[in-house]
């Protein structure tokens, strides 16, 4: 737990609520994840999912530990290059890649996993223009995961919208189209699904990928990409029991690959974790501005927002603690509300604990996943990000200014020719 004086000094430094990254926790998460798989399987490659949190400091930490970059857009691809990632260490996924995106990635030697038929033509065009080059690509596959009439996909979806469908023949069609150009090779399959994250589902995905690879790729098989979505360590406030560990996932996936493919010529196993690495490595710290009562309900107003800590508006309660300067603090029940004008801006509802006073702090844990990337500036600027450095902190992202929020290089602040009655 932090002292009041410590948090006050850090807030004074950035003049705002702020995120706090713990690089030691990030490093520990990565090492435990990698060790769970590499101790059971010889050829393992971890591609960090940029979309989860592409703070350059986070990406750099993970790259220095050996992680590749898993990106799903040209924006993220260019970020990886800017951070010095070797193009051959970039995995380019995602449902929308332009012809230029594909050409560049193939030219630089990145791994491209195609998602739809529209992405095949650019591959064939590039291959015909470079007949001396063997063009290697992967295919994201889509198959039925339903068991007993129950789909494991998130949000109750029955059919995933991603990849080449095995059942309706689009997967076979993609293979046929790509085989039409002699120097194109499909060397791997990508099987990421957004599911309930159970071990059984990952075992099912791994088994299906193996069987598809044996039937359609044969000796061309170089990799199987399981994707991401793994649970990391969850806080008690989520109320979830029996959550799989990294070892549980690793044991199920690697044993399935060995059982299906044999031990002699196993392909590279690619994994794309995101939330399991960064979620609990970041905290959000905001300060109490006011405490008031409305018709018997106590509201604690802070200089943060639910958009900072839960931009996806999931139903789980994040772990929260109060850091107060009042040693005689008392406990009660209250709501913690944010700075926006939205009625639903609740960071906590019906929370029971130490009742804070103006100037005190609230610390929210498990805020590292999707918060920094899925949290556009709304009413106030984006909070800065500090990084623990021993007993001190360093700044990984400064507090946003108006000039950065609405840069003049992008926005017009005057309308030439416009008059009250319209354009002249």
Automatic annotation (TrEMBL):
Cited Gene3D superfamilies? Alanine racemase, Lyase, Ornithine Decarboxylase, Chain A, domain 1
- As given in the record, the signal peptide range reads none
Q: Name one Pfam family in it.
A: Orn_Arg_deC_N
* Sites of N6-(pyridoxal phosphate)lysine modification: 51
Question: Under what name is this protein listed?
Answer: Diaminopimelate decarboxylase
Q: Which cofactors must be present for this protein to function? A: pyridoxal 5'-phosphate
Active site located where?
341
Q: Name one GO molecular function term.
A: diaminopimelate decarboxylase activity
* GO BP annotations listed: lysine biosynthetic process via diaminopimelate
Q: Which key words tag this protein in UniProt? A: Pyridoxal phosphate
């Amino acid at each position: 737990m932090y002292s009041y004086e410590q948090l006050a000094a850090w807030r004074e430094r950035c003049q705002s609520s702020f995120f706090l990254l713990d690089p030691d926790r990030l490093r520990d998460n990565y090492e435990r994840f990698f060790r769970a798989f590499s101790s059971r399987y010889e050829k393992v490659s971890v591609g960090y999912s940029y979309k989860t949190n592409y703070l350059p400091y986070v990406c750099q930490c993970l790259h220095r530990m050996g992680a590749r970059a898993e990106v799903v857009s040209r924006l993220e691809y260019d970020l990886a290059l800017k951070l010095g990632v070797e193009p051959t260490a970039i995995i380019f996924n995602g449902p929308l890649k332009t012809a230029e995106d594909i050409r560049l990635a193939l030219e630089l030697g990145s791994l491209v996993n195609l998602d739809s038929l529209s992405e095949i033509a650019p591959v064939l065009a590039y291959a015909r223009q470079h007949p001396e080059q063997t063009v290697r690509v992967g295919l994201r596959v889509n198959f039925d995961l339903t068991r007993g009439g129950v789909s494991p996909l998130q949000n109750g979806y029955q059919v995933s919208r991603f990849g080449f469908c095995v059942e309706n023949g689009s997967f076979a069609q993609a293979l046929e189209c790509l085989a039409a150009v002699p120097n194109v090779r499909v060397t791997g399959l990508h099987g990421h699904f957004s599911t309930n994250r159970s071990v059984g589902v990952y075992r099912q995905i791994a088994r299906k990928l193996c069987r598809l690879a044996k039937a359609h790729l044969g000796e061309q098989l170089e990799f199987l990409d399981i994707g991401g979505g793994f649970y990391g360590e969850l806080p008690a406030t989520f109320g979830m029991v029996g959550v799989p560990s990294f070892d549980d996932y690793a044991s199920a996936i690697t044993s399935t690959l060995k059982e299906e493919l044999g031990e002699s010529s196993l392909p590279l196993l690619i994994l794309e974790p995101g939330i399991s690495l960064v979620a609990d490595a970041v905290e959000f710290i905001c300060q109490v501005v006011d405490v008031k009562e409305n018709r018997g309900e106590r509201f604690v107003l802070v200089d943060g927002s639910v958009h900072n800590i839960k931009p996806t508006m999931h139903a789980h309660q994040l772990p929260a603690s109060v850091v107060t300067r009042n040693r005689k603090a008392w406990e009660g029940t209250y709501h913690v509300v944010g700075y926006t004008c939205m009625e639903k801006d609740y960071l906590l509802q019906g929370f029971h604990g130490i009742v804070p006073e103006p100037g005190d702090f609230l610390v929210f844990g498990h805020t590292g996943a999707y918060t920094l990337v899925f949290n556009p500036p709304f009413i106030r600027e984006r909070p800065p990000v500090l990084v623990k450095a021993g007993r001190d902190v360093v700044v990984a992202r400064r507090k946003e200014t108006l000039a950065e929020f609405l840069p003049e290089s992008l926005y017009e602040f005057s309308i030439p020719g416009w008059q009250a009655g319209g354009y002249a």
